[in-house]
Amino acid sequence: MNLSPVGIRRGYAGLIEGDMAPLSPRDVGGVIEYGGTFLHTARCPAFLTPEGRKLALETIQREGLEALVVIGGEGSLQGARWLAQQGVPVVGLPASIDNDIKGTDMAIGVDTALNTVVWALNRIRDTALAHERVFLVEVMGRNSGYIALMGGLAGGAEIVLVPEVEVSLEQVAEEVSAGYRKGKHHSIVVVAEGVTARLGPTHEIAHFIRERTGLEVRVTVLGHLQRGGSPTAYDRILGSRLGAQAAEDLAAGRFGHMIALQEGELLPVPLTEVGRKELAIDLELYRLAHSLGK
Ligand code: F6P
After folding, report:
1. Is residue 99 in contact with ligand 1, taking CB distance under 6 Å?
2. Which residues does residue 21 pair with via DSSP β-bridges, in sequence order?
3. From the CB of 218, is ligand 1 less than 6 Å away?
4. What is the Cα–Cα distance from 1 to 86, expressed in whole angstroms?
5. CA 209 to CA 156: how far, in whole Å?
6. In principle, which of 81, 116, 149, 230 could form an S-S bond with 271, CB 3.0–4.6 Å?
């Protein structure tokens, strides 16, 4: 394959500023075990402005970039769609721990984040059991409950609160109490961060449960712990497959799509169809998590 890759630093910010360097196969030797990105990344409000976008297009022309691979979440892929509409050959790769990108079953990073949640829940359960406490564990996901649900299911949480399913504080407190009445000695409630827009901050949810049940309640916010660490085997394989497919597509002159994973297969999804999933969780699995948690 006769391609000369260039690494753009800090995503769209680097594209705007022309911050890039040639990237040879030797430059990525040994990186498979690392989290984060050695190219760095950035939230880039400037790319949402006409001036920023103009500068990005100028960089592409000036540097003679013949095609772009955009790796990121829904926002980054929206940017990719815009570039494609301007005639730039673009291939998108889904990467977001929220797993809310329409068209793909999985995105790079999801599995590693999930395993971190499970790792954390295992440790938190030790204190929860020892002190017979209720633990509220807040996880990331923006408006998606995917990490909360799948992490809660795999981590054996008693209750999972996701933005996709409306429950009241009273119901949560009652479910916690019911568990103790049935002989449980602890309760782990996984709270998706997107729930707090409706139910209030996690520490207020904790306060409500404490007042209602008289139980000892603690809060742990996992935060950016979920966004780092050595990738799982699943993520390494997914990233390798997606990257290789992107190179093949570029070499073959196929552009304007995101490479998606659907039922184990890599498929092109037009960038025009890529957006945020209307429902990022499987409601059957939500019911399963709750019945197993009782
Ligand atoms: O979209 C990925 C994500 O990790 C969300 O789950 C989270 O809400 C957000 O990014 C955190 O963003 P930042 O790192 O900019 O605080």
Report:
1. no
2. 7
3. no
4. 26
5. 20
6. 81
pLDDT tens track of the chain, all 294 residues? 789 999 999 999 999 999 999 999 999 999 999 999 999 999 999 999 999 999 999 999 999 999 999 999 999 999 999 999 999 999 999 999 999 999 999 999 999 999 999 999 999 999 999 999 999 999 999 999 999 999 999 999 999 999 999 999 999 999 999 999 999 999 999 999 999 999 999 999 999 999 999 999 999 999 999 999 999 999 999 999 999 999 999 999 999 999 999 999 999 999 999 999 999 999 999 999 999 999
Q: Ligand 1 within 6 A of 227 CB?
A: yes
Tokens 């204190």 belong to 127
146: tokens are 């995917």
* Cα gap 20→95, rounded to integer Å: 21
Distance (angstroms) between ligand 1 centre and the Cα of 210 equals 29
- Give the integer Cα–Cα distance in Å for 41 and 18: 14
Q: How far is the CA of 140 from the centre of ligand 1 (A)?
A: 7
Nearest to 178 by CA among 273, 280, 271, 290: 290
Question: Is 98 a catalytic site residue?
Answer: yes
d(CA 132, CA 188): 11
> Can you point out the beta strands (E) in the chain?
6-8, 20-22, 68-72, 90-94, 134-139, 159-161, 187-192, 217-221, 257-262, 265-270
CB of 73 shorter than 6 A to ligand 1: yes
Question: Which amino acid appears at position 279 of this protein?
Answer: L
C-alpha torsion angle, residues 84, 254, 18, 86 (rounded to 10): -20
Token pair belonging to 159: 């209750």
Got the DSSP string for 6-23?
EEETTHHHHHHHT-EEE-
| Ligand 1 centroid to residue 62 C-alpha, Å | 32
Residue 240, token pair as written in the block = 């390798």
Does the pTM exceed 0.85? Answer: yes
